[in-house]
Amino acid sequence: MTFVDSHAHLDSEDFAPDLPEVLQRARVAGVDRILTVGCLTAESESAARVLELLASQPDLLGAAGVHPHDAKCFTPEMGEKLISLLAHSKIVGLGEIGLDFHYDYSPRDQQRDAFRQQLRIAQALQKPVIIHTREADEETRQILSEELQSAAAGVLHCFTSDEKTAEFALGLGFYISFGGIISFRNADRLRAIARQIPSDRLLIETDCPYLAPVPYRGKRNEPSFVVRVAEVLAGERGVSAAEIGEQTKANFNRLFGL
Fold first, then answer.
1. pLDDT per residue over 206-222, tens digit each?
2. Mutual orientation of helices 137-147 and 163-172 as an angle, nearest 10°?
3. Which of 121, 166, 177, 221 could bridge 208 with an S-S bond, Cβ 3.0-4.6 Å?
4. Pairing outcome for strands 129-134 and 60-65
């Protein structure tokens, strides 16, 4: 069995002490490709670290974007920096971008503007987008409807939204990615949605170091745990974990043009 972790944050300080061991555990578990997502900020430390990882680890791919938490820092200069990053041969997507109305670390007007500007960059460069939405589903749908003027590729990552948002994303041609939350005891509604997503639109992820699945909940998440996400999803859909791994790998490759 082989698997893809379609969304990780390996640049996190949580992995600084033992990243080689983390990556080795992933390989042993059958995770043979990981997308590590860098969050572009005024300091650009996360994005710079992702570039270092891509240079040293052949089985990693990358993405870059200005997270809604950092939208207050978005400037035209950061947009130009993002365009430069997306020219890298192993940076395959723009994200994560979107809206987060739970924490509101950036004012909502600035979140909306940064989201729109980055969607325009993605379309100009024909890059898939990785969407973060939390307690902002209606506005996320509205902005995507207004800004995606042509066929566009993308994914709603770490999906926790409602049925309406899932249907909307599928209608755009987007993919739906599930992480460790699908294993949580109180996630019955999310599991019900996961059972209905067409198999050719599914992705799995860890979003590590956050949101470790049961039975690792409360611990640092890491890419090897994506196998547990596959097992839970397989149980809900009545297939094998190997089938989930094979299907989501094919979907990942299709989304990112690999």
1. 999 999 999 999 999 99
2. 10
3. 221
4. unpaired
Q: Residue 2, SS3?
A: coil
Q: Which residue has the tokens 């009545």?
A: 238
Cβ atoms within 10 A of the Cβ of 139, count? 17
Q: Give the DSSP H/E element, type plus range, for residue 125.
A: helix 108-125
Read off the pTM: 0.96
**Do 202 and 219 touch, CB atoms closer than 8 A?**
no
Q: How many CA atoms lie within 13 Å of 19's alpha carbon, on the beta-carbon side?
A: 18
10 Å CB burial of residue 171 (0-12, 13-18, 19+) is exposed
Question: For residues 20 and 5, what is the distance between their CA atoms, to the nearest angstrom?
Answer: 16
d(CA 93, CA 38): 10
Domains of the chain: 3-255 (3.20.20.140)
For residue 4, which amino acid is it?
V
Q: How far apart are CA 55 and CA 226, in angstroms?
A: 23
Residue with tokens 């891509």: 54
Residue 91's contacts (CB-CB under 8 Å, 6 or more residues apart) are 54, 61, 62, 63, 64, 85
- For residue 134, the 8-state DSSP code is E
Query: What residues have CB less than 8 Å from 143, skipping those under 6 apart?
Result: 99, 112, 115, 116, 119
Q: Tens of pLDDT along 89-127?
A: 999 999 999 999 999 999 999 999 999 999 999 999 999
What's the confidence (pLDDT) of residue 149? 76
Confidence of residue 43 (pLDDT cuts 50, 70, 90): confident
For residues 27 and 56, is the Cβ–Cβ distance under 8 A?
no
